[in-house]
Design brief:
Strand order of the largest sheet: 1-3-2-4-5-8-9
CATH superfamily of the largest domain: Alpha/Beta hydrolase fold, catalytic domain
Structural class: alpha/beta
Distance between the termini: 33 Å
Shape: globular
Helix content: 25-40%
Radius of gyration: 18 Å
Order of helices and strands: EEHEHEHEHHHEEHHEHEHH
Number of domains: 2
CATH topology of the largest domain: Rossmann fold
Number of strands: 9
Number of helices: 11
């Protein structure tokens, strides 16, 4: 039996030969968030935007450490007979991609990491998860009803809109398609980074940070260089969701690197 969970995905591009491109979303996200960019990247490569475990249409599991999520991605490659892939990962997906590259460097052709570093952060998304779990979905049929319940804990409307992408209506009832219990229980692992010693990935690596974000700062550069000696670090005007805020600049930078 292969290790890892069988992930769901969106597919773009018709190029049969060559190395595929995998796209890994962040916490609270899904492959659907990357649909437009995946279609663009698909003009040059075969692209798979994956739903990571406990997100989107992927299977649920009680744990979601980065080594486990990297094994899920490895299984995806093995199940399709790919020896290697280029990988783009944002935030949680970026840490998953980095873990895959550090643990299995021969399987990653090149690596793009969007607005995250191989470090432990002090922030937590537990309040968002708590607010989503507190929301009373019983008898609700309008998203605006649930949005109003999140407003106190999540005052930023764009962030609420992003979180509410996890709300799905099935058989006349709302449910969260994200495994909130697992994400909450594993939050300490998600804001951290696995202890991989002096593991190095020496393949071509591009880190893209948002200029208004604090996820990639000069203080993080030593950790980036220690694990990714051939990394290039570029900044784009914007916040943490740079691929959504500045899609054209982000896409051009990624395409040039790939």
């Amino acid at each position: 039996m292969p290790q890892g969970l069988p992930l769901s995905y969106l597919e773009a591009g018709e190029t049969v030969g060559g190395t595929p491109l995998l796209v890994l979303h962040g916490l609270f996200g899904s492959a659907r968030n990357w649909q437009t960019l995946a279609k663009r990247f698909g003009e040059r490569r075969h692209v798979y935007a994956l739903d990571l475990r406990n997100h989107g249409g992927a299977p649920w599991a009680p744990t979601m450490s980065y080594p486990e999520m990297a094994e899920d991605v490895l299984r995806f490659l093995d199940d399709r007979g790919y020896a290697r892939a280029a990988v783009v990962g944002h935030s949680m997906g970026g840490k998953t991609a980095m873990t895959l590259a550090l643990r299995h460097p021969d399987r990653v052709e090149r690596l793009v990491v969007a607005d995250i570093a191989p470090v432990r952060y002090t922030h937590t998304h537990a309040p968002f998860i708590a607010a989503m779990k507190r929301a009373d979905l019983e008898g609700r049929t309008r998203r605006s009803d649930v949005d109003a319940q999140l407003a106190d804990a999540v005052p930023e409307a764009p962030l609420r809109s992003f979180l509410l992408q996890n709300l799905v209506l099935e058989n006349g009832a709302f449910r969260w398609r994200m495994n909130l219990d697992a994400a909450g229980a594993e939050m300490d692992k998600l804001i951290g980074f696995p202890a991989l010693g002096n593991a190095r990935y020496e393949g071509p690596t591009l880190f893209i940070g948002g200029s208004r974000s604090d996820y990639i700062t000069p203080e993080h550069e030593p950790d980036i260089r220690r694990h990714f000696p051939n990394a290039r670090i570029e900044m784009i005007p914007g916040g943490h969701w740079i691929h959504a805020e500045r899609p054209e600049e982000f896409a051009e930078m990624v395409e040039g690197f790939l």
